[in-house]
Amino acid sequence: MKNETFEEKLEHSNALLEKLMNPEMTLEASVKIYEEGLTTIKEAQILIEEAKTKISVIDQANQNVSE
User: What angle do CA 38, 55, 1 make, to 5 degrees?
Assistant: First the structure.
């Protein structure tokens, strides 16, 4: 799962949420799924931050070219 795209991580998080909504889910299984979901969301947030950094670098490079 480490090499998933942002969109794949989002889909995975949604699938985990669906599992958590199952009333027959045991507490132990729910905690595992919750933990996996938090990890997946954290990885997605890292991808967003990396994208923001790339955009900032591109913007700065374009500003330097314009000057």
Answer: 30
What are the tokens at 23? Answer: 């009333």
Owner of token pair 């299984």: 29
For the full predicted model, state whether its pTM sits above 0.70: yes
Compute CA distances 12 → 5, 23, 30, 51, 59, whole Å: 10, 20, 15, 20, 32
Domain ranges of the chain: 6-66
Query: What does the pLDDT look like over 14-23, one tens digit per residue?
Result: 999 999 999 9
Q: What is the DSSP string of 17-29?
A: HHHHT-TT--HHH
